[in-house]
Each structure stands twice: as structure tokens, then as C-alpha cells.
Amino acid sequence: MKTRTRIAAITAAGIVTAGVFAGTLALASDPPPMPGPGPGPGPGGMTMPRGGQRDGGCLGIPGVVDPSGTLTEVQRTTLAANAEEEKLAHDLYTAFADRYDLQIFDRIAAAETTHLDAVRTLMTRYGITDPTANQAPGRFTTPAVQATYDQLLAKGSGSQDAALEAGRTVETTDISLLRQSLDGLSAPDVQRVYSHLLTASQHHLTAFDRWLNR
């Protein structure tokens, strides 16, 4: 039905590369779409579509234009993990968009496509192998990521409201991971991408919160 992309979960020998998570999904009901502000710039310079944060918040991130820097081995591993994280979110929201008639999943999944593209650009710049390359929707290289995706998909497939809660879990975990990824990072291009991803996740979380807590 559509193509888009977002959560990876890997913890290795005390090095946080992405978060493994599992959450108990809550139930809510489906509210009608709410009017919001028209298109215009939002936080972080991202374009806000009509409907605003209620329906997903952002349409992606700018192209990677900042100069490259130096990454430690931990930061290189984290970058690859972020690629799987973006793919997980994209594939999960795409699956939910196919199952439920909610615009929020369409909008955020579309944003995830541009997010993954940006992370892939960085991996190419730094010569990092892309763990998402040639992986079918819902399939992941890292076993922990696969397990997380399968768990969230199963829970979110139970009801529309459980899918919204699964999305909230994804974005909450991602915000924490991106903040950790930015700590001690000096490469300008990676800093910029992570900062935009963080802003996007905050928009997405706000959208899920509004649907679940109306």
C-alpha cells in the first residue's frame, strides 16, 4: 500500500547502540481527525503539514550538507544501529497503516523514509556497512531488532489503539537513544542528522500522545 521507514535495539558489552524495548500496550479509541495549522516551518526547520502534530508532525529532514568529522568505533556502531531503528519504525508504521485507517501512520511512515535515507547517506560517507541493505519489510539483520519488531507488530495488530501505543513506545525509546547518541559526538554532519531525528521523534510522540490522551 505504501513505502516508508523507523526502531533498532542493540546493547553490546556495555555499549549502547540502540534500545531493546518491550512495552505493555494500552487501549484507546479512534478520534476524528482534528484541524490544525496549515503548512509552514516547524521546530528544527521541518515543514509542518496541514493537520500539524495531530497527524504526525513532520515530513522528514533536510539533506546532509554539513562537513564530515571523526567517529569512534562506538559511534560508527551506533550509526549502523540507527539505520535499523529507522527501518523498524518505517516498517512497523507501514504495517499499521495497511491495517488501520489512521492518517498518523501514513504521515510518520513517510517521514521515516527520509530519515533512513539521511542515515544511509552518513553510513556511505563513513564507509559503514548498511545492515538494512536488501532486507525485506519486517526483516532485520540484528536478532534483537527482529525480536523487538515482531513483538511490537503482534501487540499493535490486536487493535488500533494498541498500535498507537506501540508507536508511542517506539518514539519514547528513540528520543532516549538519540540523546545518548549525541553525547560526546563531534562530527557536524552526524550531529545535524541526529538533532533533526530527535526533533522529529518529539513531534511523533506528541502526535501519538494526542490520539491516546484526548
The percent range for strand residues is: under 5%
CATH architecture: Up-down Bundle
Oligomer: single chain
Q: Provide the domain count.
A: 1
- Biggest sheet statistics: 2 strands, antiparallel
Q: Order of strands across the widest beta sheet?
A: 1-2
Low-confidence region ranges: 1-54
Number of helices: 5
Order of helices and strands: EEEEHHHHH
Verbal overview:
The structure is a single chain. By secondary structure, this protein is mostly helical. The protein has one domain (47-212): Ferritin, core subunit, four-helix bundle (Ferritin, Up-down Bundle), CATH 1.20.1260.10. 52% of the residues lie in helices and 4% in strands. The chain starts with 10 loop residues before the first strand and ends with a helix.
